[in-house]
Amino acid sequence: MAKANTWLAQFIEEEIRKYGGVMVPVKASVLERAIIRNVTAGKLHPNPDDEFCVPSIGPNYGIIANYESIFRRYGSMHTKLNDEPLMVQKVHPDGYMILNGHHRWVAAMQSEIKWIPISIINLTQETDIENMLRASNHDKRVTLDLDEVVFAVGEGMPAEKPLHFPVNKIYKERIRLGIPALLHYLGKEGYDIWVYTAKYYSYDYISAYFRRYSVKVDGVITGTVRKTKAGSEAKKRTEQLFAAKYVETLHIDNNMVLRTFRDSREHEEYVLEDTGIGWSKAVMEVVKGFKKTVRRI
After folding, report:
1. Cβ neighbours of 64 (radius 10 Å)
2. How far apart are the first and last CA of the chain?
3. Do the Cβ atoms of 280 and 177 come closer than 8 Å?
4. What is the structure's pLDDT at 227?
5. With CB atoms 3.0 to 4.6 Å apart as the test, which of 38, 160, 195, 274 could cross-link to 282 if both were Cys?
6. Measured between alpha carbons, how far is 283 from 173 in angstroms, rounded to an integer?
7. Could you read off the pLDDT of 111-132 as tens digits, one per residue?
């Protein structure tokens, strides 16, 4: 095992050295993102900002060994226990950078599996955020967590009716009841709508999903920001862009609306009285109350 660990550490170090400073994200076409394809292990590259590649954290060799055992038993990565493709991003000069699935990638190589299934997505880049901000004429924004607030999660959260077949086979997540009406109202009130997700959804997927409900989303931040120096610096630069653009921000969660202002350390908290079926109406009532009060500068 120690020998295998040494091999993997050296391999990852060499991959990062080889592609450091030359690997650039490339936007994949609709067709490329629409299908799951098989590629060889050599076409896949580790993500230098992922914890998998951080020496102090590194790979979990127990997880790799478990996957390797399963893959050798079935002779491929398509098994009853694992049928999910690796999530990747297309990159220049060649191949794909792994976003989710590093351990399965290594296990496949060590199991001498030739073909690895991948799903290509486009993550939001800093240039995308700049373009989104440049396209807006508003100086107010709303932020919502896609995974915990916008999508209906858990048994107690009411949901909108699912989309009709066959579209519902593409967009499988359920939207929380009242989200389309709420976002439509906030847009009319002059707020840009920004949603955040810790998962690797494609920007194109999320924006197209909302259009199915006749709702425009101004910005989507996708992908987990890892706890690395590069991830922290990217997050800081993004926050600076937002601070320069927006005077007012509303952070909406399941239980509260938090209102903050760019040039003030003060903030306003509004507890939502209804967190069930009437949740969206409760948020709207909070925002309507802003018109009745004048904030002192």
Report:
1. 22
2. 64
3. yes
4. 46
5. 274
6. 22
7. 999 999 999 988 777 777 888 8
